Amino acid sequence: MSHAAAVRPARPSRRKPRGRERRHLTRGQRIRRIVLWSLLALLLGAGGGAYWLYSSLDGNISGVDLGKALGGDRPEKLPTSGQNILVLGSDSRAGANASLGTGKVAGARSDTALVMHIPEGRKAAVAVSIPRDTLVTRPACLKEDGSTLPSAQRVMFNSVYSLGGPACVVKTVEKMSGVRMDHFMEIDFAGFKELVDAIGGVTVTIDQDIHDKSSGLDLAKGTHKLDGTQSLAFVRTRHGVGDGSDLGRIGLQQQFMIALLSEIKQQDLLGSPTKTYRIADSLTSSLTTDSELASLSALADFGRSMQGIDPATMETIMLPVMYDKRDPNRVVAAEPQATTLWKAIRADGEIPESAKKSPATGGR
């Protein structure tokens, strides 16, 4: 009896820490992964488990109804299970972005644009950057206020966003490429900065000094861990690399994208719920997607389907362009390279090496 009496009081004391452990594990197990493929596109994150946490993050995401805005006059979907996602980085000077040193230009423009092609099997990815200074034919677009923006020729690609909104950018890309965009994602400057700070910075290595007073970037040749403000300057710098054009900085943007994706994939998101929430909140607060992806659960499902992709093996290409004969400060799609590139993507096939070579390189 005395032995039994000694044992019984000990049982609750052993169960109590187990109860705390079970509650801790349950909370961790309820953490759901979310993904933004942004800036590159392929950003693996994590969302909260409790309902209030889920609702908070879910309510952050803005959606655009592409079906309503674009109608039925669109390219056919890929003949395979491959996917194409248009990823935009917008440079709106409004709101939180006004304090980020992004200039005094009114309105918003698509400062970064790329088509992320994910072939069938989802084990690889190709990112095709579209230079913002590319002259394009803009189709007639239905604007967000319900009015119609008339078609126009020889307009700068990055002006399409400010005049017609993101759906018009999708329509313009589809018309110029013949490739259907299955999804659309956009992140603004403020969200980009907060995301980098939330993950603790991104490490990059450069092979030359970069000093750009316009962007504020001042880096010596070598390896650097950039915080959010420095990262923003890094992807926006143009006067410190190549010939000072938009083409020169595309290489930096692509390099940073891969470094960012790799850094996020290495994060111990399940081991730190607080850090996970900070990453997810900064990401979703500045995220706009097509309506099919405009929820935490949809992003999580999409992200899980991309887990086989290693950012380090992602191929980056710039749309082949040449300097415009009438305006050497602008570029136009180079032929036949551009047509060959888009044709390969439409077929979900391998892109020929000849289609990856751009006559205009920006001095890089």
Briefly say what this structure is.
With 364 residues, the chain is of the alpha+beta class. 36% of the residues lie in helices and 23% in strands. A hairpin with a 5-residue loop joins strand 8 (141-142) and strand 9.
Gap from first CA to last CA = 85 Å
Helix content: 25-40%
Q: State the name of the first-level CATH class of one domain.
A: Alpha Beta
Provide the gyration radius in Å.
23 Å
Number of strands: 19
What does the largest sheet look like? 7 strands, mixed
| Overall morphology | globular
The spatial strand order of the largest sheet comes to 3-16-11-4-5-6-17
Write down the overall mean pLDDT: 78
Low-confidence stretches: 1-51, 93-106
Structural class, by secondary structure, is alpha+beta
Please count the helical segments. Answer: 11
CATH architecture of one domain: 2-Layer Sandwich
Portion in strands:
15-25%
Element-by-element helix/strand order: HEEHEHEEEEEEEHHEHEEEEHHHEHEEEH
By CATH, the topology of one domain is: Nucleotidyltransferase, domain 5
